[in-house]
# Entry
Amino acid sequence: MIKFNKSFWFGIVFSLILYGIIRILLTTGVLDDVAESTLILVCINVMLAVSLNLINGITGQFSIGHAGFMSIGAYVSAILTLNFDVPLVFALLIAGFVAALFGVLIGIPTLRLNGDYLAIATLGFGEIIRIVLLNTEYVGGASGLSGIPAETTWTTIMFFFTLLTIVVINNFIRSSHGRACIAIRENEIAAEAMGINTTLYKVIAFSLGALFAGIAGGLSAHKFYVINPGSFNFLKSFEILVMVVLGGLGSTAGSILGAIVLTLLFTALQNTPELRMIIYSVILILMMIFRPKGLLGSTGLSFMKFGKKEAKPDDVISESSSS
Amino acid sequence: MEYFIQQLINGISVGSIYALIALGYTMVYGIIKLINFAHGDVFMVGSFIGLFSARYLASVGLPPVIVLIISLIISMTVSALLGISIERLAYKPLRKASRIAVLITAIGVSFFLEYSGVFVLGPQAKGFPEILNKKQYQLFGSSVQVDSNQIMILATTVILMIILQYIVHRTKIGKAMRAVSYDMEAARLMGINVDRTISATFAIGSALAAAAGVIFGMTYNSVDPMMGVLPGLKAFVAAVLGGIGSVPGALVGGLLLGTVETEISSLGYSSWRDGVAFAVLILILIFKPSGLFGKNVREKV
# Structure
């Protein structure tokens, strides 16, 4: 599944250098606690956006229930570290796999749906997960879980999982399986006629996306001490979707950029709490009106040919097929 | 049995509100295939305009029924204008863009209305004036109670529904709306002004949502800037339940959802109420994706 080539190693080396620089800046105190906190937030959002991009942008399955997977990961990992003293890394991995299992469970019945109907169904599933959590006493009901050990630090653990997410998903996209997913996005019926098992690939995309969303959820739970069902409502799902679309649907680099830009924007607007959401929404509307394809369009993540269009822009194809 | 009928009556009055909002969703979706997430917030704006005009008119000293009718009309007119301006400013420039871009814009408009509401009016809930005095009526030998508010809600819904049916089936603009929703390009070629028709659809949908907002305020006596989120989502569920794009479907879906919800609450599971609404939605989508009244469209290759 994982392809090793020049561009891949270039990316890894680039990330390690970036890691080294930030590590030095953190230890020498150039970047303070607030900056580290923002950095963790950026990384969590990058993981969420990249994993949602696999489902929405690459496979073309319109899902807006990503916060549901995130909440499963957050709760599972929190319970494992709180009640069973599982080390954080294992708790995160188990949380990711439980979320992936839910991805399969949600993927299978909703495969008959497409487009807006799938979007509504995933939104419904996300809300059902939230309401089930809200009504389960074991996980604290509406007040949620608190006292979760705050073990998420930017160094090593956050960096490692973010890099893992990007590497696995980006390599998956560029493998033959990823090509199959793109074929499903472009034209599902044609893809099926060409012998692609559309059901299998949709389920794979859903569960892989859910896996990393679950890990990201676990990481955020171990960052903020407290989790409650309210923090994983559909607004959170929208927030992730906005990152993906703002960066450029179908582009891993775009998702990363979108997550970074929006997280920094949100942090910067924290000083004007009353106007924060108004400014945010106006930026969102203007952005969509003047650049509906997102910041990077559908440019792929590749360090050797950065900025070069990877494939034909998908809107040309979808426009001709819809009319 | 009486208990069941009592819950049915309560359910119908909740369902009428959902039905009125669902109509706006279903009409807009039928015509430009957009899930207008800002619709729930138009409902909120309508409710606040109803509140302010009712307060003013009552202070002038008009009789309650006149206050209700005039504030309904004011709220519906202003919301219709709001709906048209949202469409013109935010959605019209995106007619050619991908649907996901329009959807994100709709989410942006929704946030804008919510947080502008918080900014202008403050986050705390406001009391809605009691326009009509509540009167209780006993049915079936005093075992079932109906209050005047519930009768008013049902009457308003039925009247608006009849007007809507008349507009859609008997007027020129209604005919244009049906033509555009059937095939936008062909309608354009036949000389129909598509942009004006879409504006009219937004105007009618927003006016109905505003009416629902006023009724909601009168039923629950409390309104706040975030009140549109959940009823908006539920109304959307109702629209899908009935078959999105179908006007009678929205009515039936709304009433059905309202009834199911009140029955669940009356059985003591009120905290599961919203979950059941979404579970119903998913079951419907899996077994009959086009909804109860929707047309089954086969995918063409």
Remarks:
- The mean pLDDT of chain A is 82.
- The radius of gyration of chain A is 19 Å.
